[in-house]
Description:
- This protein has about 750 residues and is α/β, with parallel strands linked by helices.
- About 45% of the residues lie in helices and about 15% in strands.
- Strand 22 (about 650) and strand 23 form a beta hairpin.
- Helix 2 (about 80-90) runs parallel beside helix 3 and helix 15 (about 385-405) runs parallel beside helix 18.
- The protein is globular and about 85 Å long.
Amino acid sequence: MITPFRQFVLKVHSRCDLACDHCYVYEHADQSWRGRPKVIAPHTVDRVAARIAEHVTRHGLERVDVVLHGGEPLLAGHERLSAIATTLRAALDGHCRLGLHVQTNGVRLDDRFCEIFAEHGIRVGISLDGDRAANDRHRRYASGRSSYDQVIRAVERLRGRRELYAGLLCTVDVANDPIAVYEALAALRPPRIDFLLPYATWDAPPERHSETAYADWLITIFERWEADGRPASVRLFESIVRTTRGEPSLTEAVGLEPSTMIVIDTDGAYELVDSLKVAYDGAPATGHDVFRHALDEVAAHPGVLARQRGLEGLSATCRECPVVGSCGGGLYTHRFRAGSFDHPSVYCADLFKLVSHIQDRTKMSSHAIPYACLDSLATGLGSADDVRLLAQAQRSVRRALIAALRPRAAGEVWELFARMDQDHRDELEQVLAHPYVRVWAVGCLRGEHPVTYLANIAAAAMIRTGQDVELPVAVIGGAVHLPTVGTLHGVGGDTVTLVARSGRITVAGHPAPEWHAVRTVSSGDYSIVLEDADPHRDCHQWPTAGRLAQHEAAAWQEAFEPAWRLIEKEYPQYAQGLRAGLTTLTPLAPASGGRDVSSTARQAFGAVAAALPADPATLALLLIHEFQHVKLGAVIDLLDLFDRSHTGLYHAPWREDLRPLEGLLQGTYAHIGVTDFWRARRHAVHGADRDTAEREFARWCGHTVAATETLAASGALTPVGERFVARMRETVVAWQRELPGLADRPNTAI
Ligand code: SF4
């Protein structure tokens, strides 16, 4: 029984316009490229397309992917690439879904290529090793000239055509600064980043300054990527996380999945995985080609089968290794030594350390959110315990962020911080848990906020424990803010010495700055911060209000008190989660025309922002609605519910513009709360208000059911995402049966 191929790397041009010294095609043992046609001939493309179509039909494949590769594929030229795509689509469209991709160095990418790629649905990956210094280390022209500016221009072109932008491929060089590389890549907002370990074997080992230099380099990036909330898909890290959970890997670089990829060269020859070129001259050859052999014949080749044997195909050392389920012995090529692949990877020590590190972190996350909790949250509700678990998991995220700041923080501030953490952890945690501390930390890592604010956090914790303070702290916007404690207004400069003694808080050498303690709003025994001073709170979709006058703060209290009573009385199923997770209410500036506006920010767990609405019931609705976003954001911090590199756009029934998948998921989850609000409201009001409630319930129920269907059909949900959306859908479909005319159709597929 053979394993069918699903990915085809098609060499369309066998030369390159760059002379990168880490390139496996030209700079390593296999020199077979010298004898091949420069560009693939049309009749060869015809045979390739026919062979793939034959293979698809024989195995009933629903999807295959073809990567147009080289050398440098764009050297094939506009018309040739267009013709190749036309031939492939003509042969395969209608038989299966065909994913077309091109992997390029980018230097020739122009508008015409982009038009061709858009016309044929070709997604573009660009090879880029990081910032200018990193990229110039290897990716140069034969003359030694840098290719960086041209590559960046290509990426910018793709950023204007998001539907074409597949991501960036970075070859690791541990001589580069990992954070500089990560930041340079992340700044280009790629849907996906691939980190590629340099091609090497035991006979030609990689350059390294320590035994685990590659692991250390990648772990530094992993930590930062986690701290940033995983802004792009990183296939290597996600594959380790996925395999740890028993899900398939996304890359041949790790995992035990059988390889389903074959290379077809410009002369139509089938070749094994391209990277084998580094092992020995002729290593990738199969002796088969598209003119004489069907793909099934190649699939039975010993070299193909060797990469499909999973655990059984690994060395004895790997088979007994505790991380083999995720590592899988690494890339096949990296196992080569003295004529045999029966060895662990030449990167074994790195892989062991990297996999162990990510597994430790992943276990921490999955302990924080077991499936029972996830299922409960997926109904749209979630108990107090479920929300507390989310809050605890946020603590891990915050800790990772703060740890990432250590190299930037002043030594004495860091020591003070560490001391507070040791001696007064609970108080420090309460300050760190303030929603806008994470907003600051993320901005700080991006260079947008001052790292000196770490001292303000430490000082706030010290004041909360009753300690005296004399400490240089950050001034932002003419104020010294101490999160969860209060703000000194009317302070000049960037840094001042804060002095707190016997409950009096002031600034050394400053004529009496104005002190405003943090205010709260409360109802019964429940109170939350009314945040109108934190300098990092302006991270919401709408502008925040300035410092509230006394009567404005009183108006918020007047609205909150009955709104919370209403939530506790009519929406107890939401009250418990809100009480466990909502810590902060941030006033927004009033919107034009008195429109109700409200918002949450992904980095600000526990905060809901709103402009003061006209009545308490509306405030109750806004709190319920927005807290749904808070909960789901925290779930997404921990779990991949969808493919983060997916760029599809979807109709949301409540908006005119198309939404990315995450936006649709967020909106749908939030509208479960809105639907439930009106569902209960129907029974609490009378007359015209009841008619309104009935109408709103029917409207939001229909919208939410339709949106869950769109999500389920997107094809971009992960298995855990499918499970989550299925439960969301069950919730609203059950409610929809309460609508007039549907009550007697309990099993209707709505
Ligand atoms: S870490 Fe080393 S021994 Fe373990 S599976 Fe990977 S390559 Fe093999």
